[in-house]
Design brief:
Two copies of one chain form a homodimer. In chain A, helix 1 crosses helix 4. Chain A is of the alpha+beta class. The termini of chain A are far apart. In chain A, the strands form two sheets. The first copy, chain A, has a ten-stranded antiparallel beta sheet, sandwiched between helices. A four-stranded antiparallel beta sheet of chain A has the order 2-1-6-5, with no helix packed on it. Helices cover about 25% and strands about 25% of the residues of chain A. Chain A is globular. At the A-B interface, strand 1, strand 2, strand 8, strand 9 and helix 2 of A face strand 1, strand 2, strand 8, strand 9 and helix 2 of B.
């Protein structure tokens, strides 16, 4: 059973995951290039993975497939058992850790799929969040994606992950608290105001559609960091209409393609920040995608301070991305 | 002039450092191995660096040398000029960015020096913090060290850096706030209590001397993360007696050597968390070193949540480090 421990100085929770130490890739600097035949996520290798949780299927077989992570950071079985150890706080590592395999073909990137394929992946994120919400021990669900060894991927077959945790993660809680303070002070959603200002100034806009906008944030931690938000207020990703998810698929795919062309298919992470699973709709929080290309290194200064140094002004990055024509 | 911008959602400050984009190494994955003759930090290449700020010298020439960073993240000249840009906050990138060259020889690591050499480096950190304190625009001074390309080093010649900022960085302020809340609640310094509990249980102790202790924190973000603290309460690193810095040099060097032997001279960062330059001595804050070997990757989950997954329990790491005999 993994253990959740809280650092008393920073307040951060750490998963001490003894089982994951068995992963042979853990201390290797790079992902070994696998032959397609050896990939456990490819069509035909289904027996190599844990039993399927959910899938999208058509006449040709599965298109998107969800399985439990074989090396889970948190486990579903057991009680939370919150306790102290002297001045420290600790609890059992209860949670869920799922893998969303995005295609039966051995593709390396979501952009290799067409808009309908991406749409299926976004729809599956929604289904999984709705399903996990029924487990009352789970308080937060984070959907994320690692592409490339430098971004922490250990398998190259295109996939996303979902980790559900028994508390709201500190970074998300900080966002919610700041957004709440803004709402109390100004009576409007911080994110709605950001969308309004970005659309008015246009300087950091990458691309937009009727209901979504992709832009470079005003103070990005790394070059070409990009956010995608719904223009209309909505706190929970999983409350998004299916028709809107189809529209989002086109915009997200175009944004990722532009980033790939701009800086040569970089390693990247993306993640969805959404309201806690068990929260009612919130006036002050607004779900969004964060896309973080991993082109600079996090060094001692960033670790020590939480300050980041970004050599590319977001206005330059946005202009560059806007001008890339996708055929 | 670099710009300091605050992200309205996370509250983090980002240095948008246009000048640094000119650095050719910025987007390269690895540090090119340099021939010793081409290194600007070696004895004899002094003309290749900006003018010296301070040094330690003996009959053989300089032993430790401080210079301004040639590609500074922040600049000393100018006014802060705090202003708004719609809902965003921005100010000029005022600050100091210095490089502490730790040896005239082309060594790659602080552990290549003897205890006296390390002691000189620790003494120089103190001198620089005391000197920068006189500039009232500067509120915080972070001393840090990047070793190896994976930890963000762009030159292999052993060196540290000091960045002084016009505000307390968010990560340090969070620590101070939490430690303050603990002090208000319990009437004791959080760090003093941690030292007391660690010395009592011994399970996470790596090594200790009369006045310092090195241990693995209860909830470390990464394997073999190690902290070094003075046993007696002190909020400001630069208030440490010179005799104690000599003692610390031996302990720090032994700790770094043990980590090198344990996991094969990993890339690592270390940094000093100390009270703000302009603060009076604080009852509730306690300076400390954090040493962070860069052996795991920060992936999407860690970025998205501030949660970390650590496959090595700190009790295992500490036992392993304790049992390493240094000759």
């Amino acid at each position: 059973m993994p253990e959740l421990r809280r650092d008393p100085v920073s307040g951060k929770w750490v998963i001490i995951a003894v089982e994951r130490a068995q992963r042979p890739e853990e201390f290797q600097p790079d992902v070994a290039a696998r032959k397609p035949g050896a990939c456990p996520f490819c069509r035909g290798a289904e027996a190599a993975t844990p039993a399927e949780i959910q899938s999208i299927r058509d006449a040709a077989g599965w298109r998107v497939r969800v399985i439990p992570n074989k090396y889970p950071a948190l486990k579903v079985e057991g009680d939370l058992d919150k306790r102290g150890e002297g001045l420290y706080d600790v609890m059992n590592g209860i949670g869920a850790h799922e893998v969303i395999i995005e295609s039966p073909e051995h593709v390396h990137n979501l952009t290799a799929l067409d808009d309908a394929g991406v749409s299926g992946v976004l729809w599956m994120y929604k289904q999984r969040l709705v399903d996990l919400k029924r487990d009352f021990r789970l308080v937060y669900g984070l959907v994320f994606k690692n592409v490339g060894a430098r971004a922490g991927a250990t398998l190259e077959h295109s996939h996303s992950q979902l980790i559900a945790t028994p508390m709201v993660p500190v970074r998300v809680q900080d966002e919610i608290d700041r957004a709440h303070a803004y709402f109390d002070f100004r009576g409007r959603c911080l994110f709605c105001d950001i969308v309004r200002q970005e659309l008015a100034t246009q300087a950091r806009i990458v691309t937009e559609s009727a209901n979504f906008v992709a832009f470079e944030p005003f103070a990005p931690c790394s070059p070409f960091e990009t956010q995608v938000l719904p223009k209309r207020h909505l706190s929970h990703y999983e409350a998004t209409d299916d028709a809107l998810l189809r529209e989002l698929a086109g915009l997200l795919r175009a944004t990722l393609l532009k980033i790939d062309r701009a800086i040569g298919t970089p390693a990247y992470n993306y993640l969805i920040h959404t309201a806690p699973l068990n929260a009612a709709p919130l006036d002050h929080y607004h779900w969004h995608f964060e896309i973080i290309p991993r082109v600079t290194k996090v060094a001692g200064f960033e670790w020590g301070t939480g300050f980041f140094i970004n050599p590319v002004p977001p206005e330059h990055a946005a202009k560059y991305l806007r001008e890339i024509r996708l055929s």
